[in-house]
Amino acid sequence: MDDKVPISLVQAPGSSGVPLVFSIAAIKRLRELGVAGILTGTLPAATQQNAFLGIPLRLMIEEAAWLVEEGFAYLVCGGKLLEDAVGNLGAEDVAMMQKKAEESFEEQRAFKRQQHIEKLQRLGITKQDGGEEDSRLLEASLFVETKNESTLLKHKEAQFDIAVLQKKIVDNLLSHGKNHNDYLMYRALRSQGYFLSPGARFGGRFIAYPGDPLRYHSHLTVQACLDYRHEPLDLLQLVSGGRLGTGVKKLWVVGGVKDDEEIEFFSVEWAGFG
Amino acid sequence: MNNSEIISLVRNNLVHQQLWTDVDQHELVADQLYVFSGLPPNKLSNDDELLCKEWVIPVELSQYRPGLLTLEVLQSIFDKIKCKRLTLGITNDDGTVVYYFVYKGLHKPKQN
């Protein structure tokens, strides 16, 4: 059994939060579970590019809630975690971090000096010790590694993995969603093996793929959950959604929650005439 | 949905424009709902093996009043007719009729 995946919940004041995943290993694990998410990270130097985005991975709230409910992951409230971690940070910890950084720099210096000497030998130059200028260049070339994950926070995340606390966070997350029944619909589609991604691209609540989105085209545009008994189908929406779906080879799917929390789905497509 | 105007509009459209044959009208009593059965001039989907009887429900696309077609109503029609798919004959006030298939459950897009 793999470890549970920590999902960071990044919360603005008053918001329920955006679930993000920062570790490549965790992203891989989620994909194996059938949760693809959306990569949102970009490079400061190439902010306009959107074809090859990187970490963090952004999840829909339904995805996050499902992962927690199934016991594959737990949510970590980013703000509180940071306050805890920074609040308890002592001089010793800081000294330790500085020591580690200095060790890395020293390693790099030794390596670079050695390389420099070898290069001079290859070129047959016998100049020894370039003095201040050389050491200035050396210092400027040292690489400061920016880690993908915080070592400081990593140990503290696990303290959020308490069933009662997780339930509270998930309930809060879902209560901020537009339609709680969408989560039931998400769960029903997952149990039938579909991969789901946000549906805005094709005018729905979800897009459903029969397998990994990198291997399959999606089959369904799933609409927001309707009231099974009382909410009539909006035929204008059905026509526009069905017509669009025909153009992109997708069925337009509506679903409603019955009394027993079962979801009844109906698939709509243009009949091909009229 | 007991509306004779849209019923005759869909019927005329099926018979004279889409050239369906054996178009019959049935009443689903409890729902006050009418259904047509009929045979199209050719298969409606490449996924069908043979030409088969189709079921069409005339409904009105009302832009101002809420419609009457809920998922529960759809379900009850499927329960009564026991067919593979229903076809909605959606009418507009300009005389347009458009046809959409409804399948129960999740279905695969048709092969072209």
UniProtKB/TrEMBL annotation, chain A:
E.C. code: 4.6.1.16
Keyword tRNA processing among record annotations: yes
Domain tRNA intron endonuclease catalytic: 182-265
Active site per the UniProt annotation: 209, 217, 250
Keywords: Lyase, tRNA processing
GO CC terms of this entry: tRNA-intron endonuclease complex
GO BP, sorted A to Z: tRNA-type intron splice site recognition and cleavage
Its job: Constitutes one of the two catalytic subunit of the tRNA-splicing endonuclease complex, a complex responsible for identification and cleavage of the splice sites in pre-tRNA. It cleaves pre-tRNA at the 5'- and 3'-splice sites to release the intron. The products are an intron and two tRNA half-molecules bearing 2',3'-cyclic phosphate and 5'-OH termini. There are no conserved sequences at the splice sites, but the intron is invariably located at the same site in the gene, placing the splice sites an invariant distance from the constant structural features of the tRNA body.
Annotated protein name in UniProt: tRNA-splicing endonuclease subunit Sen34
Source organism (scientific name): Lachancea fermentati (Zygosaccharomyces fermentati)
Automatic annotation (TrEMBL), chain B:
GO MF, one example: tRNA-intron lyase activity
Superkingdom: Eukaryota
Gene Ontology biological-process annotations: tRNA-type intron splice site recognition and cleavage
A GO cellular component entry from the record: tRNA-intron endonuclease complex
InterPro entries referenced in this protein's UniProt entry, alphabetically: Sen15_fungi, tRNA-endonuc_su_Sen15, tRNA_endonuc-like_dom_sf, tRNA_intron_Endo_cat-like_sf
Keywords, alphabetical: tRNA processing
tRNA-splicing endonuclease subunit Sen15 domain residues: 9-112
Coiled coil: none
Protein family per UniProt: Belongs to the SEN15 family.
Official protein name in the record: LAFE_0H01574g1_1
